[in-house]
Fold this sequence. Notes:
Blueprint: E1 5-10, H1 14-25, E2 30-34, H2 47-52, E3 62-64, E4 67-69, H3 99-102, H4 117-130, H5 160-171, E5 176-178, H6 207-216, E6 221-225, E7 227-234, E8 240-247, E9 253-256, E10 258-263, H7 266-276, E11 295-299, E12 314-316, E13 333-335, H8 341-349, H9 354-363, E14 364-369, E15 380-383, E16 389-392, H10 397-416, E17 421-425, E18 463-465, H11 480-495
Amino acid sequence: MNVDFDVIVIGSGAAGGTMASALAQSGRRTLLLERGSPQHPSEQRDEQSTLIEKRPYDSREIVLNDRPSRLYMGSGPGGGTSVYGAALMRPATDDFHPGKHYSKRLPKHLWDWPIRYEDLEDWFDVAERLYRVPGCHHDNPLPLNPVRGVPDNDPLPLIPVNERIVHRCREAELNPFRLPLGIESDQCLRCANCAGFLCPTGARRSSAQLVQEALSTQQPLTVIVGQEVSHLVRRPDGTVDGVSVVDLSTKATHVYRGHRYVLAAGAIGSPGILLRSGFDHPQIGRNYMMHYSPLVVGVFAKATCAEDTFSKQLGFADFYYGTHELREKMGIVQSLPVPGLLMLKKSGLGRVPEFVLRWLRRHMLPFVGIVEDLPNPNNRVECRADGRISLFHQFSDFDRARGAALARAMVRMLKIAGAAQCVRREMPSRDHVAHQCGTARFGVDSANSVVDSNCRMFGHENLFVVDGSILPTSLGVGPSLTLIANSLRIADVLKHET
């Protein structure tokens, strides 16, 4: 077989971009294919173009529960890391052993991940260095594993309202901690338009930066953007023999060939490619998960002054394993940026006078819960006859009950912090798909897993999946750092094979 590359990576997000840069730096001839095109922060900094028109986001129309939608999914070099909130947290050790908390709700083969936290521990160190995560050694994020971070990047200073929240919550014997953020503090503008927006200075680290750094040092890395993968070319013995792409600007088709192929197109995109390519494992596309995210907005009598600065700074793991009223595993709580006027109107406040919305923005601070949703085979990704992707997803009563209990705990926290009133909402919106995972999970048995512990597809020696698809359960934190660390682990496997 004539090949041009040692490894072809499809998708440049947290896992794909990190892996491609690591492989290239080890001397492997690497091709990185990305569907989206580069975005320019100077052109995508206002709320209308970014969050309403969704210009920096994936242009595909996904049929969600039989309704066509454009979702808030990152696109272009960096994928989701081009617009994420940069909170890079290590999970709890127990997250790798979900049977400890869900033994009655999960089949036995899902009680343990195929790897342990310890298998990723050294790679977490590397990931934190690459993404310039500062150490916050005086904070206590238990039961989460603490970040080690880098010593030469200071955490962003807390804004006054967050300082008050920390003080009051600690007096109430809660344990707020600084979110470990992949942000270069000396480059950050402390702007309000951070999470969800492109970064104008590059202070917020992304996988696109890692790719660019590899290119600038003349590593053997080729990056081609604007390429829609139609399918993987397969030989009769099941070996992948190429990746067929369509150039979105010219509509020309091309086949690229390599020794190894890595899918990193996301928990929606990767199963879509596998299904279009004729792979028929019964678990492909099944068990789609995205964190259940109850939202509570605290409204304070005194202005928070959080609407025009960077406010997403605090995390709480006090209720990771449940609240006093509901002792079930849940996840973390974290602060959010204050939404802009247009997003407030989109959220259902369109008839509220603008001067009232402006007052609310000056006096509010939102908290969000990250509730670990459990896998359900009925939540799935499918390919329609016309090639479009369909996504079917509903949260369970168990998810909603834990979300409601966590929301009540968030109300109490905000009241302790001084909020005069709190407003609860079930989820940010139907087109937010936070922390997608689960549609090509890894495991030790091909009967119930798509890829093995090294993310190699069972029965297909040269095909790997490394994005959020592989997660058997969804963790109680955002998965970005875990996926970055795991992609570095698998890059090390591929270094020894190619």
